[in-house]
Write a structure and sequence with these properties.
Elements: E1 3-7, H1 16-31, E2 35-38, H2 44-55, E3 60-65, H3 69-73, E4 80-84, H4 87-97, E5 100-103, H5 108-122, E6 130-133, H6 140-151, H7 157-160, E7 163-166, H8 169-177
Parallel strand pairs: 1-2, 1-5, 2-3, 3-4, 5-6, 6-7
C-alpha cells in the first residue's frame, strides 16, 4: 500500500485517546512511507492526522470541496491540497488516489464516506481494503449492527468479512496488507456502469 485514505471527524470528540490515536496513525503511515489522503482540513481529527504524518515528514494530500474551505479551514502545510466542487467529487478523488481506506471516529459525514466506500467494494467497483480503527470501542455498536444485518439476511457473510476491524494501528495495517477481495461483486462489475 502506497497511499491510504482516512475518513474521520472534523471534531476531536470527547476523549483524548481519539486525538492521540489519530496523531499516531499519521506518524505511523509516514514512517511506513504510506501517503495520507484525507479531507484537507486543519480542524479536529482531520487536522490531527495530517499533523501526525507531517511531523514525520510524510506526504499528505488533502481533498476539500471549495464550499467547505471556510468551515473546515484548509490545512496550510500539506504536500498538496486538491479543491473540488462537491462532496461526491471529494470521495471519488480520494478513492482514485488511495490503495485502501481507514475509518476513525467521526459523525455523520465520516459514516457516509465509510458506507459509500464499503458499498462500492461490495458492488465490485474496487478491491481495496477498508478498515475500522476501533479506538476505545467507538465502533462496537456499528460492528454489532453489521452482524445483525448478516443475521437477519440483509448482508452476506462474505460482504461482512470485507470489513477489517482492529483496535490497534499495526494490526489493522497488517490486515489491510493481507486483504484479498471477494472474487464476485454483489450484482455488477465496473465495466457495466
Amino acid at each position: 500500500m502506497k497511499s491510504i485514505t482516512v475518513f474521520c471527524g472534523s471534531s476531536f470528540g470527547s476523549r483524548d485517546i481519539y486525538k492521540e490515536q489519530a496523531f499516531l496513525l499519521g506518524q505511523t503511515l509516514a514512517k511506513q512511507d504510506i501517503q495520507l489522503i484525507y479531507g484537507g482540513a486543519d480542524v479536529g481529527l482531520m487536522g490531527t492526522i495530517a499533523d501526525g504524518a507531517l511531523s514525520e515528514k510524510g506526504k499528505v494530500i488533502g481533498v476539500l470541496p471549495h464550499f467547505l474551505q471556510s468551515k473546515e479551514i484548509a490545512h496550510k502545510n500539506l504536500t498538496e491540497l486538491i479543491i473540488v466542487e462537491t462532496m461526491h467529487e471529494r470521495k471519488t478523488k480520494m478513492n482514485e488516489l488511495c490503495d485502501g481506506v481507514i475509518v476513525l471516529p467521526g459523525g455523520y459525514g465520516t459514516l457516509e464516506e465509510f458506507f459509500e466506500m464499503i458499498t462500492w467494494a461490495q458492488l465490485g467497483l474496487h478491491k481495496k481494503p477498508i478498515g475500522i480503527l476501533n479506538i476505545d470501542g467507538f465502533y462496537d455498536d456499528l460492528i454489532k449492527l453489521v452482524q445483525t444485518m448478516v443475521d437477519k439476511g440483509f448482508l452476506k457473510q462474505v460482504n461482512r468479512d470485507m470489513l477489517l476491524i482492529s483496535d490497534t494501528i499495526d494490526d489493522l495495517l497488517e490486515k489491510m496488507r493481507n486483504y484479498q477481495a471477494p472474487t464476485v461483486g454483489k450484482w455488477i462489475s465496473k465495466d457495466k456502469i
